[in-house]
Every structure is written in C-alpha cells, then in structure tokens.
Amino acid sequence: MNGCRYSGKWRNGKPDGQGGKNYHNGDIYQGQWQAGRRHDRDKATEVDGRIFQEIWRHGVLTSRVPLPVGRKTVVMAAEKVR
Predict the structure, then answer these.
(1) Domain limits for position 28
(2) Number of separate domains in the chain
(3) What is the pTM of this model?
(4) What confidence tier does 70 reach under pLDDT thresholds 50, 70, 90?
C-alpha cells in the first residue's frame, strides 16, 4: 500500500471488507474496500480535522460531502491523527 498503514480485512492479498488506511500526510480513511480499492460509503478525516462522508465505486470517488465539525468531532479526529 505504498508505505501507508492499512489495518482491516484482507482477501487474496488485497484489502477487502472493512478497514482503515493512514496516509503519510496524516489523512485517515475508514470504510469499505473491494479488491484493494475503496468501495461504498466511508468517512475521511483530513489532518486539519475536516471530516467528509465519501462514496466510492471500485476505487473511483463519486461523492464527497463535508460533515459538520463540532468540538467533540475535532477532538476525536485529532486523536486519530497523532
């Protein structure tokens, strides 16, 4: 996975099912994988604390909507980034 850290389910040597990936820049993806590619709904947290609901189809981003960020949400995102 190009040096990024993935934790979750695997099938045939590729991420498949529920899992998460931490990127080098601090962004976090939590959601579904299919044959090594993002698939279905997920939550993406960027290093600056912004959170997005995304929809992916076979590795292609089809929708990205910012979620409201409250005090509690930002704290949770910051804890995951550390």
Answers:
(1) 5-81
(2) 1
(3) 0.72
(4) low
